[in-house]
User: Which sequence fits this backbone?
């Protein structure tokens, strides 16, 4: 039986069989509640407008609106809803695009049900899941390569300093 505090998850994937398998795999957890499914990015915001969702497990490659665009739209319209990229794409450009669009974490479709549950729980609780990856994605996408190519970056604080400096430059140039 699902608890009243169960994390409400929306599955977004263009493959019905994958949505079904994911639903079955997560159904054993009392603190996870699959509240719906969407087969493409176009359906996501409409679903969110009508339903309470804590976490979206979002595929990337879908027809019409892909997971990157759907993530950006969902986060703009429903900023409290977290997005976890859940995809077979392992390329850095996909990861960067999802993080910049607003994803809180990135999981491979081969992730175990326990890992999915732990990641969903962490992002709902506001934990800094994959923080370093998100910061590096921001830098790779938004900051000119020549500004950081010769730097040696050891800490998250150094990454944050680069982001803060870039943000200040952007604001000063407005």
Assistant:
């Amino acid at each position: 039986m699902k608890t009243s505090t169960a994390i409400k998850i929306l599955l977004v994937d263009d493959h019905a069989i994958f949505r079904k398998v994911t639903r079955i795999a997560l159904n054993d957890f009392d603190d996870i509640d699959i509240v719906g499914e969407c087969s493409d990015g176009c359906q996501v915001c409409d679903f969110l407008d009508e339903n309470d969702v804590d976490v979206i497990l979002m595929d990337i490659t879908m027809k019409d609106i892909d997971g990157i665009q759907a993530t950006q739209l969902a986060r703009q319209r429903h900023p409290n809803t977290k997005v976890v990229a859940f995809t077979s794409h392992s390329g850095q450009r996909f990861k960067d695009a999802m993080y910049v669009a607003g994803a809180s974490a990135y999981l491979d479709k081969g992730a175990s049900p326990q890992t999915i549950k732990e990641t969903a729980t962490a992002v709902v609780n506001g934990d800094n899941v994959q923080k370093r990856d998100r910061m590096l994605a921001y830098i790779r996408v938004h900051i000119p390569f020549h500004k950081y190519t010769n730097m040696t970056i050891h800490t998250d604080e150094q990454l944050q300093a680069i982001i803060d400096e870039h943000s200040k430059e952007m604001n000063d140039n407005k």
Remarks:
- The helical segments are 16-26, 42-50, 67-77, 92-101, 113-124, 131-142, 156-172.
- The CA atoms of residues 27 and 33 lie 7 Å apart.
